[in-house]
Automatic annotation (TrEMBL):
Region (Disordered): 1-21
Domain Major facilitator superfamily (MFS) profile: 31-477
Keyword Membrane: yes
Protein name: MFS transporter
Keyword Transmembrane on entry: yes
MF annotations from Gene Ontology: transmembrane transporter activity
Organism annotation: Phenylobacterium kunshanense
Location, primary (coarse class): membrane
Keywords: Cell membrane, Membrane, Transmembrane, Transmembrane helix, Transport
Length: 489
């Protein structure tokens, strides 16, 4: 594990705080909005495809369950290539890598739309996942290196506003495309978004890069990529019958073993692809490790709501998607108020208090019944989205409060890797919970009584994050939210 960060420092003349987005009047939102729109293309596509699987299976002449491979191979590809994102941004320039990722993602989307055989779709989804692996960490890196820390919470809030729309708009858009058009438009609709994002990124996004980036840590990339892929594939198959329990356990054990080997490798490598020493920082640890329990719930929530509203309540995919859209409205409303709230109360107080509210909101979903009026369910979902958005705005900002500029690329890579892993854990955990609750209640199908307790369990898991939040100092991240400057004045 590196012990002397100064040995890895590389000066970048156009970096750390010379932020065009900050100095140009009225443009502080522009670069974050451009990056967020590219991320929305990725998150939207990831959720839209789930609704189209039955139609795609019919077109390819295969069983619908086999089409789940199109989703799994995307996640595996993203896991494999994600560790390279930070190094590539340092080596070739973050804006260049970001634009190339947009082009390759759009090309992969178009190829998926023209696929006529299942093997073609799987191949093109693998290519799409490789391109998508760099969009989030590299886009975030551009912000971190061009935005003063005192403005970073607001910039990250703007970035996540479009990205939040993807998972919520996905179900109704996917249902509408499958119902009124051809499933291939699920992939073709990415093309105009990609073209617009490409032009705007070329015109407005500044280039940031290291002058003397270290050599790529290929053994580290292989160990982390393979380990992460094995864990994600294993968690994805928990509670399902696609793989035998022994195979799933083998995948999980292999993933843990590979990552353990990486920990040993990183301790001996000065320029390891993931710098584990940053976990010694309380702010990064609280955001990534403590916040991981929140993100487990974020991964489980869409799956559990779909099971409750569509299977247990009997609503159509389109109707259920329209109901859950209100959570995006709550999330977007919070994005405009998160910076002043954090400035007023500080990260520690907000994270501690809001963790209780977020956990309670997940547990409240267990009270939903088919007899409830739809507006009442939508109100509860909207309130939950509102406070979850505040929590993730705080977590995303806090992660980089104490990170030096020369560590930013690997910090973003590490954070993205953990986020992807814990969200897949959330999906696998929720599937396993439902299977166990069905066995416990002696039920052969998903009912309201089976699904509801899962929300209580997931809500309780989010409260574990408070163990990390409570250890934060009272002034943690004050440079990020402007409290330190206000006190000094």
């Amino acid at each position: 594990m590196p012990t002397n960060p100064s040995e890895e420092r590389a000066e970048a003349p156009d970096l750390p705080h010379a932020a065009p987005a900050s100095t140009a009047p009225g443009r502080g939102w522009l670069v974050p909005a451009i990056i967020g729109s590219a991320l929305m293309m990725q998150t939207l596509n990831a959720t839209v495809i789930a609704n189209a699987l039955p139609s795609m299976a019919e077109a390819f002449g295969v069983e619908p369950l086999r089409l789940n491979l199109a989703i799994t191979v995307y996640m595996l590809s993203a896991a494999i290539f994600l560790p390279l994102s930070g190094w590539a941004a340092d080596r070739f320039g973050a804006r260049r890598v970001f634009m190339i990722s947009i082009v390759l993602y759009a090309a992969g989307s178009a190829a998926c739309g023209f696929a006529t055989e299942l093997w073609q779709l799987v191949l093109f989804r693998f290519a799409q996942g490789a391109a998508g692996a760099t969009l989030m960490p590299v886009g975030r890196l551009v912000l971190l290196r061009t935005t003063p820390k005192s403005e970073l919470v607001g910039a990250l809030s703007v970035v996540t506003m479009p990205a939040l729309l993807g998972p919520v708009l996905g179900p109704p858009i996917g249902g509408a495309i499958v119902t009124f058009a051809d499933w291939r438009w699920i992939f073709f609709m990415n093309l105009p978004i990609a073209l617009t994002g490409l032009v705007l990124a070329w015109r407005f996004v500044p280039e940031v890069r290291e002058q003397a980036p270290p050599r790529v840590d290929l053994p580290g990339v292989v160990l982390t990529g393979a380990g992460l892929a094995a864990l994600i594939f294993g968690f994805e198959n928990l509670g399902r019958e696609a793989l035998s329990p022994l195979t799933t356990a083998g995948l999980l054990a292999s993933g843990i073993a590979l990552l353990a080997l990486y920990v040993r490798h990183a301790g001996r490598t000065p320029h390891a692809v993931v710098n584990l020493s940053i976990f010694r920082l309380r702010t990064f640890q609280a955001s990534v490790v403590g916040g991981g329990f929140m993100r487990i719930a974020m991964g489980a929530n869409p799956f559990l709501l779909a099971m409750l509203l569509q299977v247990a309540f009997g609503l159509s995919a389109f109707a259920a998607g329209l109901m859950t859209f209100v959570s995006a409205v709550g999330a977007l409303a919070m994005k405009t108020t998160a910076p002043p709230i954090l400035r007023r109360f500080g990260f520690r107080t907000v994270l501690m208090t809001n963790a209780v509210i977020v956990g309670a909101s997940f547990m409240a979903y267990a009270l939903f019944r088919p007899s409830w009026p739809h507006w009442a369910i939508m109100v509860v979902l909207g309130v939950g989205g509102f406070f979850r958005s505040l929590q993730f705005s705080a977590l995303n900002g806090l992660a980089y409060a104490d990170i030096e500029q020369d560590q930013m690329s690997r910090a973003t890579t590490t954070s993205s890797m953990v986020q992807q892993l814990v969200q897949s854990i959330g999906i696998g955990l929720s599937a396993s919970l439902l299977h166990g609750l069905m066995v416990l209640k002696g039920s052969s199908e998903l009912t309201t009584e089976v699904v509801s307790p899962a929300f209580v369990i997931i809500g309780a898991i989010t409260l574990l994050s408070m163990l990390w939040f409570a250890r934060l100092p009272a002034d943690a991240g004050d440079e990020m939210n402007g409290r330190r400057g206000r006190r000094a004045a």
